[in-house]
Amino acid sequence: MEAIITDLTPYYFQDNADNDIIVGELYARAFGPARFVKAAHFLRLGNVCDYDLSYVAKIDGKIVAACRMWHIKDEAGNTAVFLGPIAVERQYRHLRIGHELMKLCLNACDATGVKIVLLVGDYSYFAQFGFERVANNLVFPLPVMDGRVLWRKTEGDANLKGRIFPFPPPHK
Ligand SMILES: CC(C)(COP(=O)(O)OP(=O)(O)OC[C@H]1O[C@@H](n2cnc3c(N)ncnc32)[C@H](O)[C@@H]1OP(=O)(O)O)[C@@H](O)C(=O)NCCC(=O)NCCS
């Protein structure tokens, strides 16, 4: 009998609009319908993913993980990039795919001079990438649970305050 050998090595690619449906389905499996009633959803609604900062992982030619990035601003015009969602298909978790995607997206942000990356998530996972809890009272389009608003700043005096909004290109 012949053995069937499948290459389980993840390969990483910059994201693009052709992936929208497949990545949307991946997020649906990871988060369910609740994703539409989260504050983060309203930072993506009417916004446009910055594919240059976003990455997918493929195994055997299929997308198995994605991390998408979105431009936002506060009411004073301070800008930042919002990270999320990041999701890895359940059967491929614990293989450091999430870790690699985070590094790629953050490196892309650093290379283009992004000063603040903001996200809503578990400090216990994202602290390893340099994220800290945000002490400011940022006002999201919907309330967010205490302790889950995190940022990674590359310039100490960069700031976000008050209400935050989607800030779609073409400002780039
Ligand atoms: C979070 C997620 C992206 C991590 O992807 P991954 O490829 O499994 O991550 P890595 O392999 O780099 O790291 C895995 C480690 O992170 C830990 N980890 C995963 N989620 C965690 C969390 N919420 N808090 C703390 N640690 C966490 C795991 O315990 C694991 O440790 P182990 O391998 O020693 O058991 C993945 O679990 C996922 O898709 N979760 C569902 C979607 C989600 O919650 N996304 C984050 C919010 S946007």
Largest sheet: 8 strands, mixed
Distance between the termini: 56 Å
Total count of domains: 1
Which residues form runs of ≥5 with pLDDT under 50? none
CATH architecture term: 3-Layer(aba) Sandwich
Oligomer: single chain
Task: Compile the SSE list and pairings.
Elements: E1 11-14, H1 20-31, H2 39-44, E2 55-59, E3 62-74, E4 79-88, H3 97-111, E5 116-120, H4 123-126, E6 132-133, E7 149-153, E8 164-166
Parallel strand pairs: 4-5
Antiparallel strand pairs: 1-2, 2-3, 3-4, 3-8, 5-7, 6-7
What would your notes on this structure say?
By secondary structure, this protein is of the alpha+beta class. The chain has a single domain (11-166), classed as Gcn5-related N-acetyltransferase (GNAT) (Aminopeptidase, 3-Layer(aba) Sandwich). The chain contains four helices and eight strands, in the order βααβββαβαβββ. Strands 1, 2, 3, 4, 5, 6, 7 and 8 form an eight-stranded mixed beta sheet that branches. It binds coenzyme A (COA).
